[in-house]
Inverse folding.
């Protein structure tokens, strides 16, 4: 029996992980909000300056996969436009990871496509989202 979508969401929910990472780095989460317009489009607001900061975006790409992918891409774009010095996407669960190679001719390598999209949005420069700012010399033990 496969796990329910709600079980997967609880298992890979980034807010708690982001809080633990921020506490470990002795920093605070960036005040932000991800919402929806009435037609379902995603809206992102960042409520503090992140100009020149190294920012880590914590987002799992579990169900609903496509919504979570779009949220990640939009948050990364917002951070890039807000002049973050670097943006690192931390993805505890990487949707499409099973599609990392061709098993038959004319098959896409969707994991690579997704990595390219995240990179194109600015996610590896030098992400209900929680953002954390890194201290000048972060160390993770």
């Amino acid at each position: 029996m496969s796990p329910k979508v709600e079980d997967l969401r609880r298992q890979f929910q980034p807010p708690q992980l982001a809080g633990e990472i921020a506490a470990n780095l002795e920093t605070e989460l960036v005040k932000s909000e991800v919402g929806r317009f009435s037609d379902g489009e995603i809206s992102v607001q960042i409520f503090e300056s992140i100009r020149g900061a190294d920012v880590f975006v914590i987002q799992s790409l579990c169900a609903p996969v496509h919504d979570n992918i779009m949220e990640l891409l939009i948050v990364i774009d917002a951070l890039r436009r807000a002049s973050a010095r670097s943006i690192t996407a931390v993805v505890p669960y990487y949707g499409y990871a099973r599609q990392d190679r061709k098993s038959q001719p004319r098959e896409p390598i969707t994991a690579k496509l997704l990595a390219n999209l995240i990179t194109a949005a600015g996610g590896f420069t030098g992400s209900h989202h929680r953002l954390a700012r890194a201290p000048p010399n972060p160390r993770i033990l």
